[in-house]
Protein backbone atom coordinates (compact mmCIF):
# COMPACT_ATOMS: atom_id res chain seq x y z
CA UNK A 1 0.00 0.00 0.00
CA UNK A 2 1.31 3.43 -0.95
CA UNK A 3 0.62 6.15 1.64
CA UNK A 4 0.97 9.79 0.66
CA UNK A 5 0.43 12.69 3.07
CA UNK A 6 -0.27 16.07 1.47
CA UNK A 7 -2.16 19.30 2.02
CA UNK A 8 -5.87 18.97 1.43
CA UNK A 9 -7.46 20.64 -1.58
CA UNK A 10 -11.06 21.59 -2.32
CA UNK A 11 -11.67 18.29 -4.10
CA UNK A 12 -10.97 16.51 -0.78
CA UNK A 13 -13.85 18.21 1.05
CA UNK A 14 -16.35 15.33 0.73
CA UNK A 15 -13.73 12.85 1.97
CA UNK A 16 -12.90 15.15 4.90
CA UNK A 17 -16.57 15.42 5.83
CA UNK A 18 -16.88 11.62 5.76
CA UNK A 19 -13.84 11.27 8.05
CA UNK A 20 -15.23 13.88 10.44
CA UNK A 21 -18.45 11.89 10.46
CA UNK A 22 -16.46 8.93 11.78
CA UNK A 23 -14.71 11.15 14.33
CA UNK A 24 -17.96 12.64 15.64
CA UNK A 25 -20.78 10.29 14.64
CA UNK A 26 -23.36 12.14 16.76
CA UNK A 27 -22.90 15.40 14.83
CA UNK A 28 -25.44 16.20 12.14
CA UNK A 29 -23.83 16.44 8.69
CA UNK A 30 -23.03 19.97 7.54
CA UNK A 31 -25.11 21.25 4.65
CA UNK A 32 -22.89 21.46 1.56
CA UNK A 33 -23.21 25.25 1.29
CA UNK A 34 -22.06 25.68 4.89
CA UNK A 35 -19.19 23.23 4.38
CA UNK A 36 -18.08 25.09 1.25
CA UNK A 37 -18.03 28.41 3.13
CA UNK A 38 -16.15 27.00 6.09
CA UNK A 39 -13.64 25.34 3.77
CA UNK A 40 -13.03 28.71 2.07
CA UNK A 41 -12.43 30.28 5.51
CA UNK A 42 -10.02 27.51 6.47
CA UNK A 43 -8.08 27.90 3.22
CA UNK A 44 -7.68 31.65 3.80
CA UNK A 45 -6.21 31.30 7.29
CA UNK A 46 -2.50 31.96 7.41
CA UNK A 47 -0.64 29.15 9.17
CA UNK A 48 -3.46 26.61 8.74
CA UNK A 49 -2.84 23.33 6.94
CA UNK A 50 -5.29 20.48 6.72
CA UNK A 51 -3.32 17.35 5.96
CA UNK A 52 -4.80 14.33 4.26
CA UNK A 53 -3.38 10.83 4.01
CA UNK A 54 -4.07 8.87 0.86
CA UNK A 55 -3.74 5.11 0.72
CA UNK A 56 -3.55 3.95 -2.86
CA UNK A 57 -5.14 7.21 -4.01
CA UNK A 58 -8.05 7.23 -1.54
CA UNK A 59 -8.21 9.80 1.30
CA UNK A 60 -8.31 7.77 4.51
CA UNK A 61 -7.00 10.15 7.17
CA UNK A 62 -6.61 13.77 8.14
CA UNK A 63 -5.08 16.11 10.70
CA UNK A 64 -5.83 19.83 11.00
CA UNK A 65 -2.71 21.83 11.86
CA UNK A 66 -2.45 25.46 12.94
CA UNK A 67 0.80 27.34 13.46
CA UNK A 68 0.08 29.99 16.08
CA UNK A 69 2.48 32.93 16.36
CA UNK A 70 3.70 33.39 19.91
CA UNK A 71 5.34 36.16 21.93
CA UNK A 72 7.03 33.79 24.40
CA UNK A 73 9.83 31.27 23.87
CA UNK A 74 11.86 33.75 21.86
CA UNK A 75 8.95 34.37 19.51
CA UNK A 76 8.80 30.75 18.37
CA UNK A 77 5.36 29.60 17.29
CA UNK A 78 3.25 26.71 18.59
CA UNK A 79 1.79 23.99 16.39
CA UNK A 80 -1.71 22.89 17.38
CA UNK A 81 -3.05 19.65 15.93
CA UNK A 82 -6.76 18.94 15.94
CA UNK A 83 -9.33 16.65 14.30
CA UNK A 84 -6.98 13.74 13.74
CA UNK A 85 -8.88 10.81 12.27
CA UNK A 86 -8.10 7.72 10.22
CA UNK A 87 -10.98 5.83 8.62
CA UNK A 88 -11.89 2.74 10.64
CA UNK A 89 -11.22 0.60 7.57
CA UNK A 90 -7.65 1.93 7.34
CA UNK A 91 -6.55 1.98 10.98
CA UNK A 92 -3.45 0.20 12.29
CA UNK A 93 -1.66 0.42 8.95
CA UNK A 94 0.75 3.28 9.76
CA UNK A 95 -1.45 6.03 8.34
CA UNK A 96 -1.94 7.90 11.63
CA UNK A 97 1.80 7.69 12.28
CA UNK A 98 2.51 9.22 8.86
CA UNK A 99 0.00 12.01 9.49
CA UNK A 100 1.61 12.87 12.82
CA UNK A 101 5.11 12.80 11.28
CA UNK A 102 3.92 15.26 8.61
CA UNK A 103 2.31 17.48 11.26
CA UNK A 104 5.53 17.57 13.28
CA UNK A 105 7.48 18.40 10.10
CA UNK A 106 5.11 21.34 9.52
CA UNK A 107 5.89 22.57 13.01
CA UNK A 108 9.61 22.12 12.55
CA UNK A 109 9.58 23.98 9.23
CA UNK A 110 7.71 26.86 10.91
CA UNK A 111 10.28 26.93 13.76
CA UNK A 112 7.66 25.97 16.35
CA UNK A 113 9.01 25.17 19.78
CA UNK A 114 6.32 22.57 20.45
CA UNK A 115 3.52 20.60 18.87
CA UNK A 116 0.45 20.30 21.04
CA UNK A 117 -2.82 18.40 20.91
CA UNK A 118 -5.60 17.18 23.11
CA UNK A 119 -6.53 13.52 23.00
CA UNK A 120 -9.69 11.65 23.84
CA UNK A 121 -9.74 9.83 27.15
CA UNK A 122 -8.96 6.54 25.46
CA UNK A 123 -6.03 4.30 26.36
CA UNK A 124 -5.40 3.24 22.75
CA UNK A 125 -5.30 6.87 21.61
CA UNK A 126 -2.86 7.75 24.40
CA UNK A 127 -0.60 4.85 23.45
CA UNK A 128 -0.76 5.90 19.79
CA UNK A 129 0.30 9.49 20.51
CA UNK A 130 3.05 8.20 22.79
CA UNK A 131 4.46 6.12 19.94
CA UNK A 132 4.43 9.31 17.85
CA UNK A 133 6.69 11.03 20.39
CA UNK A 134 4.04 13.01 22.27
CA UNK A 135 4.15 13.02 26.05
CA UNK A 136 1.29 13.58 28.51
CA UNK A 137 2.97 16.53 30.23
CA UNK A 138 0.02 18.78 31.05
CA UNK A 139 -3.54 18.64 32.30
CA UNK A 140 -5.93 19.62 29.54
CA UNK A 141 -9.01 21.67 30.19
CA UNK A 142 -11.98 22.17 27.95
CA UNK A 143 -15.12 24.23 28.15
CA UNK A 144 -17.77 23.39 25.60
CA UNK A 145 -19.64 26.52 24.58
CA UNK A 146 -22.54 25.00 22.65
CA UNK A 147 -24.76 24.41 25.68
CA UNK A 148 -24.08 27.94 26.92
CA UNK A 149 -25.04 29.32 23.49
CA UNK A 150 -28.27 27.29 23.48
CA UNK A 151 -29.14 28.41 27.02
CA UNK A 152 -28.45 32.07 26.26
CA UNK A 153 -30.75 32.07 23.21
CA UNK A 154 -33.57 30.52 25.27
CA UNK A 155 -33.36 33.07 28.10
Short characterization:
With 155 residues, the chain is α+β, with helices and mostly antiparallel strands.
Describe this structure in words.
The protein has 155 residues and is of the alpha+beta class. It is built from five helices and five strands. A five-stranded mixed sheet has the order 1-2-3-4-5, with helices on both faces. The longest helix has 15 residues, at 95-109.
Gyration radius over CA: 16 Å
User: Which overall shape is indicated by the principal axes computed on the Cα atoms?
Assistant: globular
Structural class: alpha+beta
How many strand units?
A: 5
Give the low-confidence spans: none
In what order do the strands lie side by side in the largest sheet?
Answer: 1-2-3-4-5
Q: What is the average of the pLDDT values?
A: 93
| Biggest β-sheet strands, sense, barrel | 5 strands, mixed
Strand content: 15-25%
Task: Please tag this protein with its features.
single chain, 155 residues, alpha+beta, five-stranded mixed sheet, globular
